[in-house]
Write a structure and sequence with these properties.
2 copies of one chain form a homodimer.
Chain A lengths: L2 H8 L6 H9 L7 E2 H11 L5 H13 L4 E4 L5 E4 L7 E5 L5 E4 L15 E12 L1 H6 L1
Antiparallel strand pairs in A: 1-3, 2-3, 4-5
Chain A binds a DNA duplex (30 and 30 nucleotides) through α4.
DNA sequence: TTCGCATGTTAGAACGATTCCAAACTTGGA
DNA sequence: TCCAAGTTTGGAATCGTTCTAACATGCGAA
């Protein structure tokens, strides 16, 4: 059993076969799957899993802080199990492949480029505006 | 007539009333409108504009490099007319309000925080992976 | 061990953003 | 003025995601 499943059980999660295969699909390095990719992987182990359950489970894992939800330009969300290491992303503009990078510098060091030709950087600061701070 | 409309005509664009009001809706600082917000603004000047035309025009402007297309977490695309100044974004996680910032530093200087409480940073390196470089 | 029921799962309907379509309408050149 | 190419339009189609309501099941209590 992976540490993730342990943590989930500790939080009072019912350990169903579906949740198990979905959580297992979401382990590894540089994993940034879309919901149907997760479904594909999960179905290898348990063919009758439904897409609805994949979405339910992924959303719960995001709410628990066990997964990061990434918004890709193609409009599909991707899920990243790397929540312990602070990191950023290197994204191929053609095929959409994503890799995790540790760089904290908008000039990505060559050592972290994984052979990619870097075309640009986008930095998004997530914040709370004065109006919403006041309303909260 | 704005410089944008001049540039468009120089590129052989037909200057229709629709394109004019849509281009005009997309001028200003810190403008990051969604397609229906653009529609609302355009309809003030020309009530019969359709949403389809707004999408057509925005996509053409993006293809011409006159607009930046931003993918927001809420799943809606936003359009940014600031294509000349290299910049990044400060986004309110509650209301979605966006501001342009010049910072090139993942620790956003207080002078550029616009009173926002910064919660996190996301850096995305847009690149081309070795496989896609080879295929191109 | 079995039972009960709160929790999970499911297929399919609903939804919202965006794109596609084919018909009707303009624009600007001849 | 007329025409062809380029534009616009409403509505249908698509795609990812969420909702719904009926059905199934894990697991604590007896």
């Amino acid at each position: 059993m992976t540490p993730l499943l342990d943590r989930l059980r500790d939080r009072g999660w019912r350990l169903t076969a579906q949740r198990r295969v979905i959580a297992e699909a979401m382990t590894g390095e540089h994993v940034h799957l879309t919901a149907d990719e997760v479904l594909d992987r999960a179905r290898v182990a348990l063919p009758e899993v439904s897409l609805a359950t994949v979405y339910n489970t992924l959303n719960e894992l995001v709410a628990l802080g066990e997964l990061l939800e990434l918004t890709h330009d193609d409009g599909r969300k991707r899920y990243d199990p790397n929540v312990t290491e602070r990191h950023h992303h290197l994204v191929c503009v053609d095929c959409g492949r994503m890799l995790d990078v540790q760089a904290d510098d908008p000039r990505l060091p060559t050592s972290q480029r994984h052979g990619f030709e870097v075309l640009g950087v986008e930095v998004t600061f997530r914040a709370r505006c004065p109006d919403c701070t006041r309303a909260a």
